[in-house]
Amino acid sequence: MKKRICWFLSRAAIVGLLAATGCQTVSISSHQFLGGPTYPPTDPAQVQILRTEPTRPNVQLGQVQAEPSSSSVSNQQIEQAIQKAAAKMGANAVVIVVDRTQIMGATVTGPLWARSVNQVTGRVIVGVAIRYTGT
Question: CATH classification of 25-132 is 1.10.150, yes or no?
Answer without folding.
Answer: no
